[in-house]
Protein: Diguanylate cyclase (GGDEF) domain-containing protein
Organism: Insolitispirillum peregrinum
Amino acid sequence: FFARQRGVPSCAFNSELEDTARRRLQLERELRGAIERRELQVYYQPKVALSDGRVVGMEALLRWFHPELGFVSPVQFIPIAEETGAIVGIGEWVMRQACADTRAWHLAGFDDLVVAVNVSGRQFEATDLTGTVLSALKESGLPASALEVEITETALMRDLERARTVLGSLRDLGVALAIDDFGTGYSSLAYLRDLAIDTLKVDQSFVRDLTDDTDDQAIVRAILVMAQSLGLSTVAEGIETPRHTDFLRQHGCTLGQGYLYAKPMPACDFSAFLNRQRRG
Ligand code: C2E
Ligand code: MG
Ligand code: MG
Ligand code: MG
């Protein structure tokens, strides 16, 4: 304000901030009603056994295609949806969609597929997540054993007591629980002992430079050894080269996902992908 009054042109930093704020408001506004306008879609990325590339399941990943803004990344709009609370409705929609699609794949003969659905901290804290999961399972006819919920460490740590209760009741239903982006969040490991967790997902930031970076190699090895000792299964994210797979396999990681195998794709493409795999 002062800068402008004195006739000094406002600096690039300020206008960048303004652009960011404007963009944020715009996304916040446009996100309202995005489901009704059918702008949201659930994509699926295959999760494979690293031993032979066999598909064992998939991760549901939300996509937003806006008629004017084009594709908006979940990295941009999920945090906004969390702040405004829109994630609650959107999250329920994703859960129902993912369960229904997976049930259809089961009926088509791929009946051992497990679907992983991302759940944000807000969904965890403020809503009846167990109720949402239960009704999505009932509505679709999908067995609880075919569903896995992914949650980040950071989201868990926001309210550990609540996490304990919710994770416990999801476990009672028979739903599996994975810690997403493992190693990038909270530093205490005590929660691994105290909470009902099945799987650790090795964050893609450790996988990216795995072939050359000895620090990343050490971290990944340590995570895999620890998971094994605790009886947790492991999934590596962001596998892009056969050498990533080799390293991970050698050190005991059994499952993975990444562009080397397939990018996230719409449900119809995933069906085609499954059929191709089955035919060999
Ligand atoms: P995430 O759950 O850790 O998902 C993995 C991300 O890595 C996805 O990004 C996926 O497309 C990307 N990815 C997979 N393979 C590779 C690879 O080989 N290389 C690289 N560079 N990236 C790979 P995406 O789809 O953009 O999603 C970003 C994040 O947005 C997710 O991270 C998750 O935290 C959040 N998100 C996505 N869908 C949902 C949702 O339905 N609900 C909630 N709460 N969050 C979601
Ligand atoms: Mg995830
Ligand atoms: Mg992740
Ligand atoms: Mg991530």
